[in-house]
Design a protein that fits this description.
314 residues; alpha+beta; twelve-stranded mixed β-sheet; 8 helices
């Protein structure tokens, strides 16, 4: 399918971040009726150590300059790439999705030749109800891997107190090698099948985003330990009244003790202290026995499903 002449291909480096933000919010509204994406979200995404806006990320723009599609690859270490493909539904949706996916796959082939191995590609952030991207991905050999429930939490409601298991304590994650190794080990152990897993060096650099306060936002990076052993961690950030819990992990041997809930409620308390009035939390509902009870406990206002698609080496 030929790309319409009125659409221009640009590297993401040529597109202002505010234009990308407006685009993603328009995409959310077109699918779900509401937009939750914030400036802090896009800063966190484009600030990822493996994100390269010049060589691995492209936008399609209309004559007036507004973005109508965005595709990107993020190198996350090892034999895998983290991809994104977001397209506004409409007359040009199919051709836009195929154009950008073609660029992503060609760039993947180039990276495979550079590194000597064909990587696995995970395309995340696809909203349930998207009429274009899932179909185009499946035509290209991607398979639906896992869906997360993204919950919006009302932080103006009375908070739930964090209840720690006996002998447990929560503390900030240090940037010392010992802490980073322990938390990275949990990161690898606790990822759901088909979700992003970072190699050690990329993860270490990624942690820096949550340990540095900037003009745009403040990060929260905490771990929980029992008898001096790290058994869980949580990463979150806040900005402009909005918060997001990005990663929660509990050691498989320590599940069932309330550690995950303690980490979430502690992070939410931190977001409240930073002035947030709402927060987003992605949950793998297949691991939660009573999702409705959790929603009630955390004062969840609404939720939506976000799906990851994976293409493995042939």
């Amino acid at each position: 399918m030929t790309l319409p002449e009125h659409l221009a291909v640009k590297s993401a480096a040529e597109v202002p971040l505010d234009s990308l933000l407006d685009f993603v919010r328009s995409y959310e509204e077109s699918i779900t009726g509401t937009a939750s994406y914030t400036r802090e979200d896009i800063l966190l995404e484009t600030g990822h150590p493996g994100y390269d806006p010049l060589h691995n990320s492209w936008c399609l723009t209309r004559p007036q300059g507004d973005v109508m599609a965005w595709g990107a690859l993020t190198v996350r270490g090892g034999a895998s790439l983290d991809g994104a493909l977001t397209v506004l539904p409409g007359d040009d949706g199919d051709s836009a999705a195929r154009e950008l996916l073609g660029r992503l796959l060609r760039r993947t082939d180039e990276l495979a030749r550079e590194h000597g191995a064909e990587p696995e590609i995970t395309i995340g952030g696809v909203l349930t109800g998207d009429p274009v991207v899932p179909r185009v991905l499946e035509e290209a050999g991607f398979r639906r891997q896992i869906s997360f429930t993204q919950a919006e939490i009302d932080l103006t409601s009375p908070p739930v107190a964090a209840v720690l298991p006996e002998g447990a304590r929560v503390r900030p994650i240090d940037t010392t090698p010992a802490d980073v190794r322990d938390v990275h080990r949990l990161h690898v152990q606790t990822r759901s099948k088909g979700t992003r897993t970072l190699d050690y060096e990329t993860f270490r650099t990624r942690l820096d985003q949550f340990n540095v306060a900037t003009e745009e936002g403040v990060g929260i990076a905490l771990l929980i330990e029992i008898a001096g052993r790290t058994v869980g961690h949580v990463l979150a950030y806040a900005g402009d009244g909005h918060g997001r819990i990005v990663d929660v992990g509990v050691s498989p041997a320590s599940r069932g003790l309330g550690i995950g809930l303690a980490l979430i409620t502690t992070a939410l308390a931190g977001l409240r202290e930073l002035g947030c009035h709402r927060a987003l939390l992605a949950l793998d509902s297949s691991r939660i026995q009573d999702l409705n009870a959790l929603y009630s406990l955390l004062s969840v206002n609404g939720s939506r499903a976000v799906t990851h698609y994976v293409r493995r080496p042939s």
